[in-house]
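We now fix the convention by which a protein and its fold are recorded. These numbers are not coordinates but entries in a learned vocabulary of local backbone shapes. A record is reproduced here so that you can trace the correspondence yourselves:
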Amino acid sequence: MSKLVAIVGATGLQGGSILKTLYAADGYKIRALSRNPESDSAKKLAAKYPDVEWVQADLNDVSSLRKALISVDVVFAVTDFYQKDTLAKVAAGDKDAEFTQGKNIVDAAIDAGVNSIIYSSLDSMKQLSGGKYPDILHLEGKHKVEEYILSKADKIKGYFIYLGVYMENYVRFSRISPEDNQTVEFTVPLNPTTKIPLVDTANDTGHVVKYILEHPDECLGKVVEVSGGYYEAQEMANAFTEATGKPARYTQIPYEAAGMYELSQMFKAFDEFGSFGGRSDFLEYNKEMDYTFVTPVEFWKNRNWNGPSK
């Protein structure tokens, strides 16, 4: 019998990767949850994957989530701190805005009788830094959701993935150098020698989630890292040149240039403590998984880079 998997955030990079991977695999029925199933992005995916069921659900509305999760076996959930509505609530003083959305998903899943939840979480930098960096809210909120899921272990099985830094971000943090009008500069507020885990989100994520679905006992309650390796920023620039033949370099910019205070704090913390704080308790699974993570060179070869994203 096929498992019915509900995907929260099906139009995003993580959810879209899971949608693509499970659609191509045997044994799964897919229900895609979207705040607006009539959006252009949802319609495009609905046309591409015609057997997927699209259901309206709002992460701020438990009743809509409960209705959307009826008869679901497993729900994949991701919350987005940088969604406009969430940022507005944070700006108004609600630091738990993202946690509330995650809690809503968990509560609705339990009410609907869902067996398992796979949540895209992250470490608490407050914990990793010994309290030095307590205000990186998109990390704290996700980790708080993870802890909430674990507290409900008697009602729902919890699984967790930690994604590395999106390789896709390097497209956003790129520009043509004004010095020679041809060299591509990657501008990030990180020390050049800081190694961070990188992931081709749109391609890698779904395969890890599929592995969890196929190994539920092994992965239960564990944290699974989604990353193809740890790289310095200059290595991404070198990979770009190798893939495209175009000159490229990494240029470190001030932390404050990241914009939001919480982002400047995040980059400072990454430089000092690392993205995952050097933790060594991730579930070892890479050698068993029938998939090879996308490398930075492969990422740029597949990207067809024509300039910074708008």
